[in-house]
Amino acid sequence: MGPIVPSFRFWMMEWLVKITGEKTLIISIGNGNPMIVTFQAMLEKLRNKRLVYVGDSLNRNQWVSLVCMLESSIHTHLKQVHFNGSLVTLKAIEYNATIDFYWAPLLVESNCDDAWHHRVKDRVLRVDSIEKHARFWEDADVLVFNSYLWWRLDLTVLWGSFESADAKYEQLGMLRTYELGLQTWADWLDTHVNRTKTRVFFVSMSPTHSRGEEWGKAEGENCYNETEPMPNAEYWGSESSPGMMRLVEAAIKKLNEKSGVKADLLNITQLSEYRKEAHPSIYRKHWDPLTKEQLENPSSYADCSHWCLPGVPDVWNHFLYVYLLYL
């Protein structure tokens, strides 16, 4: 069978749902040929397992995507959702499977670690401290990490504890700070991860579309009112840092070659770069009432970082499922 054209792909999806009565997804593999997967099959792969997404709101975006895809295939009386501080859990009782999200936007300890109150003016992190978070995911079978956007902010490194009067503060620059944070993350995995049980994934940076001038709009415009993907297959936005991506690739390579940890990069960056029309834009959660000035200029409050659902994070999870086939 050759590659499936879009019209046939959608027809096949509809046909499968009709004859199986199950929610279905189609993943393109190899030369474009399809692999048909039911969401029950995904749940079966997670039977007796714990999958934990760890990171920032983009990883929560991906967690919500997977929950939305799977929960409709779980009987209402056989699923539970629990909130415990930074940890939120979907429990599929019939499968003895848990799908968690844990809020740790910088992976290491910081003053932004409260899942509900993390909008602080001066962001400070302990780049060499991760145990505060890691104890919540230590027993996972599948770990899906991400951490990117928060490192592009103005961060201060704290050497010592937040309570110590002798603590020292230092500005090291984005790339060096990120490198140290990844080193702490990798060192923890090297020491604690069960190599016969746990699979580790790191999701590459999720692109933003805040600079419309990069695709032909006026300076100062962004994803607001966009309705089509990028027409340029070579597009790479200036807000996506190749230097940070190389640091992640190097950390994962070291984990695999020197530590024997099964770690993979879930590379979603380039395909997501094209989707300037796929953000919530002005249809976002507003934490504060909009001002008159904002209402007169909708692009000023458009969310061009997160993603609509259903949408782009669903594709990321399709990639993840292909890896899970080999658990």
From TrEMBL:
Highest taxon in the source lineage: Eukaryota
One Pfam short name: PC-Esterase
Boundaries of every Trichome birefringence-like C-terminal domain copy: 40-321
Family, similarity comment: Belongs to the PC-esterase family. TBL subfamily.
Protein name in the entry: Trichome birefringence-like C-terminal domain-containing protein
Source species: Solanum stoloniferum
